[in-house]
Amino acid sequence: MKFISEYRDADGARRLVDVIRRQVTRPWSIMEVCGGQTHAIVRFGLDELLPHEVTLIHGPGCPVCVTPIEILDAAIAIASRPGVMFCSFGDMLRVPGSQQDLLQVKSEGGDVRIVYSPMDAVTLAHEHPDREVVFFAIGFETTAPANAMAVVQAARLDLKNFSVLVSHVLVPPALRAVLDAPNCRVQGFLAPGHVCAIMGTEEYRPIVEQYHVPIVVTGFEPLDILQGVAMTLRQLEEDRAEAEIQYSRAVRPEGNRLAIAQIREVFETVPRKWRGIGEIPGSGLGLCAPYARFDARTRFGVEQITVEEPKECIAGEVLQGHRLPCDCPAFGIRCTPERPLGAPMVSSEGSCAAYYRYRRHAGP
Amino acid sequence: MCLGIPGKVIDTFDRDGLPMGKVEFGGIVKETCLAYTPEARVGDYVIVHVGFAISRIDEAEAEEIFSYLQQIEAETTEPPPEEPNAATGDGGAT
Q: How confident is the model over A168-192, as pLDDT tens digits?
């Protein structure tokens, strides 16, 4: 496919790896933020091509993985009610809540539907005025404009039976949390390309300046990632810290102004708890007052749920790059995609799922 | 979750006041909302995420990675040793 195949060219990858080898003079640790990048790295074995001085640390960029267990329990409580049609991206259905997951709710007769787009949920609400249609609005900045449009469209159509369970998260506060951690090893970031296609690079500049850390907005194909690594290493070796764009075919420095305006119309910044990490100030989006009537939490009275996360799961440490999935004693034994302890094992972008799929049989 | 797939716009139309497009991904055609890329025309490539085009692909920038590679290879490759005794006429034999 155009704009995919040419960035998977083996010769180009070898040449980029040669460039990286010639550039590197000492050990460096670089975090790829997005789970999509983690999957490409593990799937194509990019980390194994790199010289031993370069360590890639897998970051927290998987919204399914960081959605807190309380919100899963709220989703399960809402989806279990009669008269509710609960719509979600497919990734969320197997993510364990404290007692069960959405797939179990569905198997017990709950009307849980997988949708491709949030607009599909709006259409369902329009077609089924007798049902309460709830959309599970999760995601990073990439997904926020789509979810915002669904709310605006529901308002335009004056739908009384549509609401959203919002658990949006934002990348820059998460990068600050990673950098502020006492045992942080990260010296540079491959920033998530599609988040920055929406938001641009402006909000990354203060992080670059404050922490003197290079941030290179990077795409998702093997050549993109290797070029992102080469650009980050060059900054590190030259003791520079700048926000650069590798993924320039899709990302402009100013981002997508129409999408940003739509996010600001519907959402406001709120504190958000990240699964396994804890609350990060200003790291989430919630509905702003003019759209508060679409908030499923208040509509169904599920604001007060608090639960403990499973003790054995080390998802929090994996998401912050402190440990690898295969460091977990439960990995592949008591935690598998069929019976997960934590979300990174089920999400299509979770680190644990990537290691289970591509590295399960690898030797030490 | 932030998966975005590049596809080619093969038709544009309007629905409920929203600019829409038919976008082809290697033979599969999906209806896609173009509200955030109203500049996209038939024949353009866009990155599609959950039914929305989030960016129009800049085709000139898409080639940038290959010129970067040539440029950085030229910069980081050691220049070939100077030809010894060019005057003797045995230079150039490699």
A: 999 999 999 999 998 899 999 999 9
Integer Rg of chain B from CA: 24
Q: What angle do CA A117, A204, A219 make, to 5 degrees?
A: 50
* pLDDT at B92 (0 to 100): 42
Q: Which helix (H) or strand (E) segment is A28 a member of? A: strand A28-34
| Topology match between the domains A11-59+171-235 and A65-169+255-299 | yes
Over residues A243-248, the mean pLDDT reads: 98
Q: Identify which has the larger pLDDT, A326 or B16.
A: A326
Domain boundary assignment for chain A: 11-59+171-235, 65-169+255-299, 315-358
In this complex, which of A12, A140, A145 lies closest to B2 when CB atoms are compared? A140
The CATH topology of domain B5-76 is SH3 type barrels. (2.30.30)
ipTM of predicted assembly, 2 dp: 0.93
Flag if B36 and A258 touch (Cβ within 8 Å). yes
Who contacts A242 (Cβ-Cβ below 8 Å, separation ≥6)?
A208, A214, A215, A235
The rounded percent of chain A whose pLDDT value lies above 90 is: 84
Query: Quick check: pTM over 0.95?
Result: no
Q: Which residue of A has its CA nearest to B72?
A: A19
DSSP B87: G
CATH fourth-level superfamily of A11-59+171-235: HypD, alpha/beta domain 1 (3.40.50.11750)
Closest to B69 (Cβ–Cβ): which among A16, A61, A198?
A: A16
Q: Does A60 touch chain B (CB under 8 A)?
A: no
Set of chain A residues whose Cβ sits within 8 Å of the Cβ of B54: 142, 145, 194, 197-198, 256, 259
Mean predicted lDDT score pLDDT of chain A: 94
DSSP A43-70: HHTHHHHS-TTEEEEEEEE-HHHHS-HH
Domain residue spans of chain B: 5-76
Does the A65-169+255-299 domain belong in CATH 3.40.50.11740? Answer: yes
CB contact under 8 A, B55 and A250: yes
